[in-house]
Amino acid sequence: MIKTITKSEVSGEIIAPSSKSALQRLIAGAFLSSGTSSIAYKTMSDDSAAALNLVQDLGAKIEKSADLIKITGGFNQPKTDLMIGEAGLGLRMFSPILALKDTEFNISGKGSLLQRPVDFIVSTLSDFGVNISSNNEKLPLKIRGGYKNNKVQVDGTFSSQLLTGLLMALPLRNEDTELFVKNLKSKPYIDLTLSVLNKFGIEINHQNYEQFYIKGNQKYQAVNTDTEGDWSGAAFLVVAAAIAGKLKINKIDIHSTQGDKAIVEVAKAAGAKIEYFENSISVEKGNLQAFEYDATDTPDLFPPLIALAVYCEGKSVIHGVHRLTHKESNRALTLKTEFEKIGAKIIIENNKMIVEGGKSTGNRVSSHNDHRIAMALAVAGLQAEGKMIIEGSEAVTKSWPDFFEDLEIVVNG
Q: Rg of the Cα trace of the chain?
């Protein structure tokens, strides 16, 4: 699908999309709970829908309306051949959960997830004594539980998402577990996991994210809750306002544990005008200057930050490029390739990306089937001197199916 963005101003108010990171965790927690949980939401992304379908296949009872999900949890005559779509978090979160059962499950995916390495899932769960194998370090995975060892080291270099799955699964063991975590990246996402677990009555203690103490025989309690707004998605709205007008973004919590809320401080440092409200934020265009930011713990901010940097005077520097390799695309190369088509000057040097700002031209560009690339190009197109024609725009359904419709609303004011 092709979408065309022309030079425009943005104005008005908009509700932030639901956090797919939070919603997937809530779905997993509801599945592990006794009783029925009610989860309100605004946005049902492809990844969240995949998680919902998976827990249904495992035996959960699902009732779903346009803005509410009711989940009655529990393994109940589960299917053994499972599909998680293209959801990287879903795969890494549910693999440890599946390992709770003495049943052989086969779990596979679609699209780019089929090309992502899964050896770290295999090695970590094997260290627990779980019977698990892959297809030459790729999907599908064969998993047969359960956990046998009580003290295991977890490497967080590649992703924090497997740790999230372990933190969700291990409280249901009969035994206590101690995790020794090294090189943990994306600590804010672990804060989000711990916050969600707390909603369900699960308690986990840790020392500086390096040792986690997990009591066994805990029980998940059903919840009635709302899905918080998504800072990863709202980041594109922040940048849209910073370069092209003024927006009030509603149902977004500046006190959230989501690390991507850092976009606000970066935009402010670059010259955008920021005003804070209760559960909302106002962002207005300013005289934008180059910025420097370390995105090691918040790699999903790279695409909106590149769109911002293109319109900042001077050379912006973003650190953490090594976190971009195993995304929906090789995001570092994709960002460089596509933004250079619209006149950006980008240098990838060691672990940083240097963007020389100024002006942008429109052009025919590609999302590379990457939702965040599609959104970044669309936002950049708001001030481009010429049409931004985005091929593969349907990629946005992975996290924000209504992105282009919502963008059109604020463009029309």
A: 21
Q: Could you tell me if 236 and 317 lie in one domain?
A: yes
Whether 300 sits among the annotated catalytic residues: the reply is: yes
pLDDT digits (tens, 9 = 90+) for 270-297: 999 999 999 999 999 999 999 999 999 9
Answer for the pair 106, 98: CB distance below 8 angstroms, yes or no. no
Last residue of a domain, one of 178, 212, 246: 212
Catalytic residue among 260, 300, 370, 406: 300
- The pTM for the full model equals 0.92
DSSP for 277-325, written as a single string: ETTEEEEE----B--EEE-SS-GGGHHHHHHHHTTSBSEEEEE-GGGGS
Buried b (16+ CB within 10 A) or exposed e, 217-230: ebebebbebbbbbb
Same domain? For 90 and 116 the reply is yes
Residues 390, 370: Cα–Cα separation, whole Å: 12
For residue 35, is it within any domain?
yes
By residue range, what is the domain housing residue 114? 20-212
Name every residue whose Cβ is closer than 8 Å to that of residue 1 and which is 6 or more positions away in sequence. Answer: 392, 393, 394
Judgement on whether residues 124 and 8 belong to the same structural domain of the protein:
no
